[in-house]
Amino acid sequence: MCLSPGSRRDAIVARPPSTRGAPGGRSRPAPPRVPRTASPSSSPSAPCDPHLTRAWQPTRHQHRRARRRSPVPDHTGAARPPEVIVDEALVDRARAGGSDAFAELVRRHTPRVYTLTMRLLGNRADAEDAAQEAFTRAWLALPGYREDAAFGTWLYRITTNVCLKTLSRRRPTLPLDAVAEPAHDRSPEHDVTERARGEALRIAIARLPSEQRIPLVLREFAGCSYESISAELGLTVPAVRGRLHRARLTLLEAMRPWT
């Protein structure tokens, strides 16, 4: 799903005042706000819509830079996609103090970040807040960003951590349809056990190494195909399957007391 022209115009924000406490002790402009109107209007259940990446088109200069750098393989041995190379150019500018370049990164990644937060958190308000927090953390951490991972992968890592933190703060609640169930079908002890099991699972997922946690979240929570995860993270499909397999084995071991 592409952003509408109106949504893209709304995404362009004025440069906000500086904020303190950035890495290195220098003031950095506040990150651009995630545009509320840029949130996908349709159901977030469609897995990893490839059209979400079409919301922004690189300039002619960025195309030339991408062409110059495109033959260089990444650490997986595969050639980097052009959109990854354009992200690198924008990151270079943003780290040099260009808040406009970071605003471009926000526009490029807002649809996918919002889709991920919506799938993980389930309601629009929490998803928008989590997306904004993820971009804020990314902006403040940008001086320490290393290009051993694509910017999108690094951003998804931040986003999943924000969502897991949000989930851990939530007060456990019963689904609405459980209220209507007869008392003899669900006891209070059963409900307490289910809540504790869900919390244990969230903790186990949070403790996974990021290279396992991100594919797991994209596959099991966001509903992405192996091919989509491969494209998002710059990995081969066998590598994705291997990381998912190791993640599931770890979770099975962690959840053994609950089975």
Describe this structure as you would to a colleague:
By secondary structure, the chain is an all-alpha fold. It has one domain (47-169, 187-258): Rna Polymerase Sigma Factor, Chain: A (Orthogonal Bundle), CATH 1.10.1740. Helix content is 59%, strand content 2%. It has helices at 5-11, 60-69, 82-95, 99-121, 124-141, 151-169, 176-179, 188-206, 210-221, 226-233, 237-254, and strands spanning 18-19, 28-29. Strands 1-2 form a two-stranded antiparallel sheet. Helix 2 (60-69) packs across helix 3, helix 9 (210-221) packs across helix 11 and helix 10 packs across helix 11 (237-254). Mean pLDDT is 70; it is low at 1-25, 37-76 and 172-183.
Shape: globular
N to C succession of SSEs:
HEEHHHHHHHHHH
CATH architecture: Orthogonal Bundle
Q: Structural class of the helix and strand makeup?
A: mainly alpha
The CATH topology assignment is Rna Polymerase Sigma Factor, Chain: A
Notable characteristics:
single chain; 259 residues; mainly alpha; Rna Polymerase Sigma Factor, Chain: A; two-stranded antiparallel ribbon; 11 helices
Explain the layout of strands and helices.
Layout: H1 5-11, E1 18-19, E2 28-29, H2 60-69, H3 82-95, H4 99-121, H5 124-141, H6 151-169, H7 176-179, H8 188-206, H9 210-221, H10 226-233, H11 237-254
Antiparallel strand pairs: 1-2
